[in-house]
Amino acid sequence: MSKTIFITGAGTGLGKGTAIGLAKKGHHVIAAVEIMAQITSLREEAEAAGVTLEVIKLDIKNERDQQLIDEYDYDIFVANAAIGEGGPIAEIPVDRVRDIFETNVFSTLENAQIAANKFMKKEKGKIIFLSSVAGLVGMPYLAAYASSKHAIEAFAKAMKTELEEFNVQVATINPGPYNTGFNDRMFEEKWKWYNPKENLTPEKSMSNMEQLLDNQYDPEDMIAKMVEVIEADHHAFRTAYPQEIEDQMKDEEQKSWDARV
């Protein structure tokens, strides 16, 4: 059965691929992008893929734009939009962490609350939060981003229980590192403030972590998994993908219990 799906952050990366993938499956997709310039490019890519998307401009931090979430009618809301930044948490300027939280935590919650209230009144609907492997695994030099995704995990768990009496489903999708450019940009952001001659953290220490950029997965696999989960009537509360990432998340959680200081 065709569904109407509202997805934020659809201008790039996994969000864009998933919006197009869902449209290919016959769903009506409201694809929200951050800036006007992304509207034309996404429409063109959708046309090239042989599908039609309803593309709208929606900066998730903008209160006026947020009203669109209330104005549209849809069956599923996908909170996908996010930003990130790497760097040592002991030295990263806190204003940069605030910026991440403003987008990934506070604005995402505002968006989800609007969708939740619509669904509660209808007594049906589904909210999907795009979390991350970093939402459960604490990663050195990614703590600013990871902590925002830990908050998303807490929101999702609580909202799942709170909305069950309204017949509203809540779930998370936790991708591993995929080669969309997002992770590369996240690590590059630190150079806006980090200076190896002034900061105490050695550049070499961070470069070891950045080696994960050399082993990123093909995003098409994750897009297919996201399409599968989003359109499904029933699925797991948490979908971590690929399997080795799910296993890594479980192993790292156990290490936290076993660790000593």
Automatic annotation (TrEMBL):
Membrane-crossing residue ranges in chain numbering: 127-146
InterPro entries: NAD(P)-bd_dom_sf (IPR036291), SDR_fam (IPR002347)
Species the sequence originates in: Salimicrobium humidisoli
Pfam families per record: adh_short
UniProt record similarity statement: Belongs to the short-chain dehydrogenases/reductases (SDR) family.
Keyword set, alphabetical order: Membrane, Oxidoreductase, Transmembrane, Transmembrane helix
Keyword tRNA-binding among record annotations: no
Classification via SUPFAM superfamilies: NAD(P)-binding Rossmann-fold domains
This protein's name: Short-chain dehydrogenase
Keyword Nucleus: no
